[in-house]
Design goal:
Distance between the termini: 12 Å
Radius of gyration: 17 Å
Number of strands: 2
Order of helices and strands: HHEEH
Structural class: mainly alpha
Oligomer: single chain
Strand order of the largest sheet: 1-2
Helix content: over 70%
Strand content: under 5%
Number of helices: 3
């Protein structure tokens, strides 16, 4: 039974890594399209904003520093998700492997 739990923990950690990487991609893409000028990009901006809204909402509540005219617009959240994906998830996977024996 512990062996099965080890597989489940490792698989969920891999899923977490995929979700974190997807969040990073969406946040960075939304930030880049937000900076580009032009009204023709408004549908793309709107779609990206709606997809990344939960992460942006979390960002504005907890990580919303503004330095002059620069607005992070989710970049700090993207960086945090990238750190979790690259350094936190491998530790969870190793924990899952240690449960297997």
């Amino acid at each position: 039974e512990q062996m099965t739990m080890g597989y489940v923990i490792a698989d969920l950690a891999y899923l977490l890594a995929i979700l974190c990487d997807l969040g990073v991609f969406l946040l960075v893409l939304e930030w880049l399209f937000h900076l580009l000028p032009g009204a023709g990009l408004n549908p793309v901006r709107r779609t990206l904003y709606q997809l990344s809204y939960p992460l942006l909402k979390w960002n504005e509540r907890f990580l919303a520093p503004k330095w002059g005219p620069f607005n992070s617009r989710g970049l700090l959240t993207a960086f945090l998700l990238l750190i979790i994906s690259r350094y936190g998830v491998p530790l969870i996977v190793l924990y899952g492997y240690s449960l297997r024996g």
